[in-house]
Specification:
alpha/beta; six-stranded mixed β-sheet; globular
Length: 155
């Protein structure tokens, strides 16, 4: 059984020189740390992260809160404009049973919808620091099931 966790980055500042440079707000930092609670006690074999600053910061805080020190890789195919079908093709290279992707909207919503429904017409609702757990025998369109979806709530 394969487990794929989809994590959208925490709340980010509204503007920077470029979208890729946007950093987490203080609230976004709290969100990233709190999101790790959902994986407490779970096995995670690999973390794949978008190169954008806010995703890197989210992964740093998430892994620190979880105490995760395993495999972590920055991949250029997890940016907001990436194709969900391309992401699935890239994931085929990984044989790990439990992977966390740290990325952005609209990619994480489209990817989740495609993996669960076999199409992108029903994307997963992924707010900042939302975390979805998908399971299935294969990471392929329509072959995974949504096992959990947690959204960050304001205090």
């Amino acid at each position: 059984m394969k487990t794929l966790w989809l994590l959208r980055h925490g709340e980010a500042e509204p503007a920077r020189h470029s979208d890729a440079e946007r950093q987490l707000t203080s609230y976004g930092r709290q969100q990233a740390s709190r999101a790790a609670e959902a994986l407490s006690g779970c096995t995670l074999q690999r973390v794949l992260v978008s190169p954008y600053v806010r995703a890197q910061q989210t992964a740093d805080l998430f892994c620190q809160a979880l105490g995760y020190t395993g495999l972590r890789e920055t991949v250029d195919w997890l940016t907001p404009e990436s194709s969900s079908r391309w992401v699935i093709e890239q994931l085929d290279r990984y044989r790990d049973e439990a992977i966390l992707l740290v990325s952005h909207q609209p990619l994480v919503g489209d990817l989740g919808g495609l993996l669960i429904n076999g199409h992108r017409q029903e994307p997963l609702p992924m707010g900042t620091a939302s975390l979805a757990k998908l399971e299935g025998l294969e990471v392929a369109p329509g072959l995974m099931s949504l096992r959990d979806l947690r959204h960050s709530m304001r205090d």
